[in-house]
Amino acid sequence: MAIMYRVDSSTGEGTFIRVLRDGQPFGKIIDAVGVYRFYEADNEKLGSAALQDANLDRLKTAIQAKYEGRVR
User: Fold this and answer.
1) pTM of the model
2) Once rounded to an integer, what is the mean pLDDT over residues 43-67?
3) Is residue 8 part of a domain?
4) What confidence category does residue 59 fall into, taking pLDDT thresholds of 50, 70 and 90?
5) Does residue 72 lie in a domain region?
6) Which of 5, 30, 42, 47 has the greatest number of beta carbons closer than 10 A?
7) Distance of alpha carbon 12 from alpha carbon 22, whole angstroms
């Protein structure tokens, strides 16, 4: 399951990073006051981030470690 990242801004919420798994939308990363938060699907509710980190590269590594081998 290959995970890829693409800068997106299609929802009117501003710029965020779309997370794709096998080419399909899987979630998104939003920069919330210096902390990057990853939300599975489009479930961005306060406190519901699946993963978060102040460093974007570390967050991407954590997303890949948690989800890349997992079957949907």
Assistant:
1) 0.76
2) 84
3) yes
4) very high
5) no
6) 30
7) 25
Cα–Cα distance, 16 to 1 (Å, whole number): 22
Kindly state whether residue 34 falls inside one of the protein's structural domains. Answer: yes
Is the pLDDT score of 46 beyond 60?
A: no
pLDDT single digits (tens) 28-41:
998 877 889 899 87
Instruction: Write the CA distances from 23 to 4, 5, 13, 48, integer angstroms.
Output: 8, 10, 22, 24
- Report how far residue 41's alpha carbon sits from residue 43's, in angstroms, rounded to the nearest whole number: 6
State how far the Cα of 35 lies from the Cα of 25, in Å rounded to an integer.
Answer: 22
Provide the domain limits for residue 9: 3-67
What's the number of domains the chain is made of?
1
Cβ burial, residue 52 (10 Å; 0-12/13-18/19+): middle
